[in-house]
């Protein structure tokens, strides 16, 4: 069985490696990764059965990394206490190890994973974990997207507007547009409510980008943005805009 160690702390990776070598010779470490960028590439390359993943890492965090992986492996988190994630871990993760952890606690987590009758079930836990985190998201000041083999971090202030696109959401920026496998509800919750407003069931606008509002068909309007984009505004969205903009 193949495993990856994804943690920006070399000592933390060394400890997991030592614990594995001590008790689980059948689990081979395919690669050690110092950040989430390396982790995404290593998962695609090695297709591991299990990853040991830290949450708080530079560049992109553990959750952002998992969002960018197509075929997600089973995960045992190795992390410092994280209030936001802990409930999701308890419900959906294979297990989580709060640093510092002992060999005994480590073995318990790995044994739990090995005891699962079907290792694909543990991958389903990873999917459920991400779904749970998305349903109760924290405020974010950036969005991470994958473009081919590259990863792009989009600062919140660069988001002009977002638009529903089938099962995805299209994010529009001055540099271009990017697909993200999230819902409009997710973005409505995570983007700064003082800066962004959902003006239509399929559109969220950065308020500072609005140049003017124009009537359009019955009981609806169009928001004209600085970029020239024309965004539909529903009747309820128009009412919210008038209140927010004081018009």
CATH class label of the largest domain: Alpha Beta
The structural class is alpha/beta
The CATH superfamily of the largest domain turns out to be Response regulator
Corresponding CATH architecture of the largest domain: 3-Layer(aba) Sandwich
The helix content is: 25-40%
User: What portion of the residues fall into strands of 2 or more residues?
Assistant: 25-35%
What spatial order of strands do you see in the largest sheet?
A: 2-1-3-4-5
In round numbers, the mean pLDDT is: 86
Shape: elongated
Number of helices: 8
The number of strands is: 15
Query: What fold name stands as the CATH topology of the largest domain?
Result: Rossmann fold
Number of domains as seen in the coordinates? 2
List unreliable stretches of 5+ residues: none
Major beta sheet summary? 5 strands, parallel
Q: Topology as H/E string?
A: EHEHEHEHEHHEEEEEHEEEEEH
**Straight-line distance between termini:** 63 Å
In short, what is this structure?
The protein is of the alpha/beta class.
Please, could you describe this protein's structure?
There is one protein chain. By secondary structure, the chain is α/β, with parallel strands linked by helices. The chain is 36% helix and 32% strand. A hairpin with a 2-residue loop joins β9 and β10. α4 runs antiparallel to α6. The chain starts with a strand and ends with a helix. The mean pLDDT is 86.
């Amino acid at each position: 069985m193949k495993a990856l160690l994804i943690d920006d702390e070399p000592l933390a990776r060394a400890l997991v490696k030592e614990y594995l070598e001590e008790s689980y010779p059948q689990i081979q470490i395919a690669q050690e990764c110092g950040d989430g960028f390396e982790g995404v590439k290593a998962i695609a390359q090695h297709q591991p059965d299990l990853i040991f993943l830290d949450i708080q890492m530079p560049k992109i965090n553990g959750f952002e990394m998992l969002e960018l992986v197509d075929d997600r492996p089973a995960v045992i988190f190795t992390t410092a206490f994280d209030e936001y994630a802990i409930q999701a871990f308890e419900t959906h993760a294979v297990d989580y190890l709060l640093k510092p952890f002992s060999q005994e606690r480590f073995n318990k987590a790995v044994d739990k994973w090995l005891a699962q009758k079907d290792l694909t079930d543990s991958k389903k836990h990873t999917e459920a974990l991400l779904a749970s985190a998305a349903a109760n998201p924290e405020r974010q000041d950036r969005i991470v997207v994958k473009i081919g083999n590259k990863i792009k971090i989009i600062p919140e202030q660069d988001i002009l507007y977002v638009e529903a696109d089938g099962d995805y959401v299209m994010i529009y920026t001055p540099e271009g547009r990017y697909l993200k496998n999230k819902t409009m509800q997710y973005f409505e919750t995570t983007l700064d409510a003082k800066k962004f407003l959902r003006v239509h069931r399929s559109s969220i606008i950065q308020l500072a980008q609005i140049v003017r509002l124009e009537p359009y068909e019955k009981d609806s309007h169009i928001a004209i943005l600085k970029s020239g984009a024309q965004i539909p505004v529903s009747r309820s969205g128009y009412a919210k805009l008038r209140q927010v903009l004081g018009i």
